[in-house]
Amino acid sequence: MKKRIVFATGNAGKVKEIRMILADLGMEVVSMKEAGIQIDIVEDGKTYEENAMIKARAVAQYTDDIVMADDSGLEVDAMNKEPGIFSARFMGEDTSYRIKNGEIIRRLEGVADEDRTARFVCAIAAVLPDKRELTTRATIEGRIGYEEKGENGFGYDPIFYVPEFGKTTAELSEEEKNQVSHRGKALELMKKELMKYEDTYR
């Protein structure tokens, strides 16, 4: 029986993005919820990789499928690389990203363009059916904008400006975003890793 990938997230936007990027693996990609797995996971790792692996291992206890998870964050150089691994919890998990984005823009008031550098970081962890573990990491460099722009993204996308496109990641098309995004690049690396184990999971 062909294996499927269970992705440890409840974020519908993220699952859609992941399905597009992993489409050529020819495997079904489902969220934890779609797989019927509902557990609370405490992410207390010190790095993106640790947090991603905590999630993947937790879900892998409930399925024989390939389990993948990601942990990502925004690092703003002028804020000592905050919010970093605490990006989802910055100003409280239930705080809207409009408020979070507004706070970052406020804290960068008066900061010159060249000093508004930032990056998105994404680590992907996978636990294979034979319990082998893999991790990949990728980044996208950019700058913090002066206002929110774009409707295509989620989270911090509307304030993350990508100079090579002259737009925020929330203004990029899905194809453009998957090509350059931290998650897209980390998933492409993971796809290469999984292809090495093709015989194991097919």
What does this structure look like?
The protein has 202 residues and is an alpha+beta fold. It has a single domain, classed as Maf protein (Alpha-Beta Complex). It is built from six helices and eight strands, in the order βαβαββαββββααα. Strands 1, 2, 3, 4, 5, 6, 7 and 8 form an eight-stranded mixed β-sheet that branches. β7 and β8 form a beta hairpin. α4 crosses α5. The longest helix has 15 residues. The termini are close together. The mean pLDDT is 92.
CATH architecture: Alpha-Beta Complex
Average pLDDT, rounded to a whole number, is 92
Number of strands: 8
Q: Which spans of ≥5 residues are poorly predicted at pLDDT below 50?
A: none
Order of helices and strands: EHEHEEHEEEEHHH
> How large is the share of residues in beta strands?
15-25%
**Residue share in helices?**
25-40%
Q: What's the shape?
A: globular
Largest sheet: 8 strands, mixed
Q: Given the structure, what is the number of helices?
A: 6
- The separation of the N and C termini measures 7 Å
Q: What is the third-level CATH name, the topology?
A: Maf protein
Q: How many structural domains are formed by the residues?
A: 1
The level 1 CATH classification is Alpha Beta
Which key terms come to mind for this protein?
202 residues, Maf protein, alpha+beta, eight-stranded mixed β-sheet, 6 helices
Strand and helix layout:
Elements: E1 5-7, H1 12-22, E2 29-31, H2 48-60, E3 66-76, E4 82-83, H3 97-107, E5 117-127, E6 133-144, E7 160-162, E8 167-168, H4 174-180, H5 182-196, H6 198-201
Parallel strand pairs: 1-2, 1-3
Antiparallel strand pairs: 3-4, 3-5, 5-6, 6-7, 7-8
